[in-house]
């Protein structure tokens, strides 16, 4: 990084003290991961804002364990302290440590300087991409959705009541087994099949079962305090939980929210700017997907194809800016994944979506 940036981060950046970590642990923050050595004590010069810290233990046979991690909103100059627990192969939270010892660590953080790696800002595009991917996630969202100190869980939910198949598990094609819904994840619950008011008339039930605008606006008012960017923030958090932590509760919530935004004809007509912001968020997420991840996970059962066809159908004819932005998304899908949304004439084709050949 350039000297000016380094000086600014030295003065205003945060610190993560990571104590007693075993050798050969995979440790990462945002888009960067390393196998750490015995002298590693954490990360310094962390830009203020949201970050995802993760780690994975390596067995004596050299096998990588499940990636575990937590989201944390760092304030300027904040010092966060975590300590490795060899018994659980997990981190002790700051509240579990001796408070007097923690205060000594924080007061003398400079003593650890030589054993702390700087937050990687080279190439700078990585941090810019991370900021864009998480720009709408607020500290309040993280506290509400991940109440266990921002930790992303991989433990199955302990729940006696039956859940529908889509909630309970999704097929993880990378490991070839079913993964149950994780506990400790408090994503906003909503049922796309109950998208109308309690005392709805027969006409309203029919209308709002097709057009999800009532449900979306109800959630916007009740949960997100009429701020659609916070609503998109939950969509971002759910996606990052999947992308960075292989968390399938996040995958389910992300799919639910994409379905919801794509199925709002009346709200789209009233507030087209909301849906331009949705497309921006959606495209940035797809930009971060490896091609095999897109094909095997995100477009399974033609999910993206059917959602974007629904979205296109709901765009008002007079909303030129929204229509233009949708066309840009289509061009992006072709250039990034060689994947093209069928035309309206082709929507009956069972082979959609199709792969197109790109000129070199």
Automatic annotation (TrEMBL):
InterPro entries for the chain: AAR2 (IPR007946), AAR2_C (IPR033648), AAR2_C_sf (IPR038514), Aar2_N (IPR033647), AAR2_N_sf (IPR038516)
UniProt xrefs under Pfam families: AAR2, AAR2_1st
Domain AAR2 N-terminal: 13-147
GO biological process: spliceosomal tri-snRNP complex assembly
Taxonomic superkingdom: Eukaryota
Domain AAR2 C-terminal: 187-341
Stored Gene3D superfamilies: 2.60.34.20, Aar2, C-terminal domain-like
Family: Belongs to the AAR2 family.
Name of this chain's protein: Uncharacterized protein
